[in-house]
Amino acid sequence: MCLVFMLSATGCSSVTNGKRIVRVATMQSETHPEYLGLLKFKEYVEKELGDKYEVQIFPNEILGAAQKAIELTQTGAIDFTIVGTANLETFASVYEIFSMPYLFTSEDAYHEVMNDTDYMNKIFSSTDEQGFRALTWYNAGTRNFYAKKEIDSPEDMKGLKIRVQQSPASVAMCQAFGAAASPMSFGEVYTAIQQGVIDGAENNELALTSNKHGEVAKYFSYNKHQMIPDLLIGNLSFLNGLSKEERKVFYKAAELSNEEECKQWDVQVKEAKKVAQEQMGVKFIDVDVLAFQKKVKGVQESILKDNAQAKPIYDHIQKVNKKYEGKDGE
Ligand code: GCU
After folding, report:
1. Alpha helices, H only, 179-231
2. Nearest-atom index, ligand 1, CA of 66
3. If you average pLDDT over residues 212-227, what whole number do you get?
4. 202-211 b/e with 16+ CB inside 10 Å = b?
5. What spacing in Å lies between the alpha carbon of 48 and ligand 1's midpoint?
6. What's the pTM value of the predicted model, to 2 decimals?
7. What one GO molecular function would you report for this record (predicted)?
8. Domains of the chain and any CATH numbers
9. Arithmetic mean of pLDDT, 151-164
10. What band does 326 get if pLDDT is binned at 50, 70 and 90?
11. Assembly ipTM
């Protein structure tokens, strides 16, 4: 609280012992792949520019939940933040496209699009007016519903109150599935499920273990509605204030953090599934994904109709999707 207040206040100094303190916020815990990725970021920046910069990482929403952290990154109170594109949607509408349900039809297509640095950089640099710019992406897996009761089909969603991210497209998606959507920040979800304020939520497998949601929600249904990337966003004035050489270092550090995160992600998701199943008693359920897909056609159409920036990105992704159609491995 105090820290957030201090950061919100103007004129707060970010120089200690002659070094510029670079503040990086993440919503995740110290064991999460993103935190491990950020350690690489810190290590590289300090190896190359350690006489001038010290990178401090703030996990667990310490500097504020996603929406607050984005605002603080816009003002420069925080220099970098990792947030999902769903949380960026209301700040920069270009990111709404990634909340479209069933946008990617395979993990391969998702990874190819996100790893296409030239393509993604055009999107990343399109938010300059908002005061921030993304440097790289992190895998946040595939999102699925999990709840206190078993969801086998869209019909089971009727009457359920489900937490979604603070993303209007995700609210619309949840409603199209037949549930009541309850947008709230990530850190509030555990208690909300535990106290019965909501019946469940939607996320990747790590939410069950890293955030302990598997303690309070025992049914995880693989309906695979979204693959939403997380992004490392940086304050634009900070980035613009760097020399050419320094900027190169920060971008390289971002690239290294992406590589580490993606590697850790694959390992940790497998582990999370095992722990959730064997130690937390979570039941993983395979459902008819097509039945869920049919429910959200209207949501896909309305994003394309109402958001002029969405269509060209959608078309690009469809081309990549096509390349992997019919291949196994999902
Ligand atoms: C995932 C994702 C975060 C997101 C969170 C949420 O953990 O990586 O970016 O904020 O889900 O559902 O809020």
Report:
1. 189-194, 206-209
2. 10
3. 98
4. bbbbbbbbbb
5. 31
6. 0.95
7. carbohydrate binding
8. 2-140+228-269 (3.40.190.170), 143-227+281-324 (3.40.190.170)
9. 98
10. confident
11. 0.99
